Amino acid sequence: MYNFKYERAESVDQAVKMIQAGGHLLAGGQTLLASMKHRLARHEALIDLGHVHDLVGIKQEGSNFVIGAMTRHQDVAKHAGIKQHIPGLAHLAGGIGDKQVRAMGTIGGSLANNDPAACYPSAVMALDATIHTNTRKIKADDYFLGMYSTALEPDEVITAVSFPIPNKSAYAKFKQPASRYALVGVFVAQTDQGVRVAITGAGQGVFRHEGLEKALQSSFTAAAVDGIKIDASELSADLHASAAYRASLITTQTQRAVDAALAA
């Protein structure tokens, strides 16, 4: 690991000033620190957000749950309101990494990093969530721009994520056994506005599938997606799975998510 300066922000405004002075934000550090240890990333200064208490917590505001950016995965997984009203989100958070990762990793850090195999982006996309920053609010469909790329400006800080409460939701993930990232993960949400299906791990970033959504809008059953074509030509292929295998997994994980949503 390269040498770096450690700084601790006490507020979002202070963090922004530190970013403008050349610092880089540190949330849970599950990805950033590993990248630095392997010399895949180099930053002169890290700005620890762990003491910005305004960024931590979960609250219900009307028909939405607002989760602070520095809220740990384990706290989302255990939250009674999330488990009752958005069980798919609680299940997703409880399946990220291992116990140590869930104790340190944060929703804001995951979304800012936007790993193409991360779990949270699929929940944000499927639930039509809104990302709050220190300057604006960004809808999920406008936020994710591809592999490790988002709509965030260089000095913009995620402060919270607002999740509308769906009628039904569930997440099904086929894990890459070593990393526990999603080889393919599918989040399904049924709302009054329609069905949204978001897929992670299969491509260059999270994406929705129109064919699956239309089929489930007509009939919210696992059988409804039988015969829906999943085009493998734009899916990822690596030593863990071919594009064709990932296409097959998308169908299977969608069916499992629907079954779980109906059983919840």
What keywords describe this structure?
single chain, Enolase-like, domain 1, Uridine Diphospho-n-acetylenolpyruvylglucosamine Reductase, domain 2, 264 residues, globular, four-stranded antiparallel β-sheet, 34% helix, five-stranded antiparallel β-sheet
Account of the protein in words:
By secondary structure, the protein is an alpha+beta fold. Among the domains are: 1-52, Uridine Diphospho-n-acetylenolpyruvylglucosamine Reductase, domain 2; 168-263, CO dehydrogenase flavoprotein, C-terminal domain (Enolase-like, domain 1). The protein has eleven helices and 14 strands. The longest helix is centred in the C-terminal third of the chain and has 21 residues, at 243-263. The radius of gyration is 18 Å and the shape is globular. It starts with a strand and ends with a helix.
Mean pLDDT: 95
What is the number of E strands? Answer: 14
| Cα separation of the termini | 45 Å
CATH architecture label of the domain at 168-263: 2-Layer Sandwich
Q: Report the β-strand fraction as a percent range.
A: 25-35%
User: What percent of the residues sit in helical stretches (DSSP H or I)?
Assistant: 25-40%
CATH homologous superfamily caption of the domain at 168-263: CO dehydrogenase flavoprotein, C-terminal domain
The radius of gyration over CA amounts to: 18 Å
Structural class: alpha+beta
CATH hierarchy, class of the domain at 168-263: Alpha Beta
Low-confidence stretches: none
Q: Tell me the CATH topology of the domain at 168-263.
A: Enolase-like, domain 1
Biggest β-sheet: strands ordered side by side in the sheet: 4-5-10-6-7
In DSSP terms (H or I, runs of 4 or more residues), the helix count works out at 11
Shape: globular
> SSE string, helix = H, strand = E?
EHEHEEEHHHHHHEEHEEEEEEEHH
Biggest sheet layout: 5 strands, antiparallel
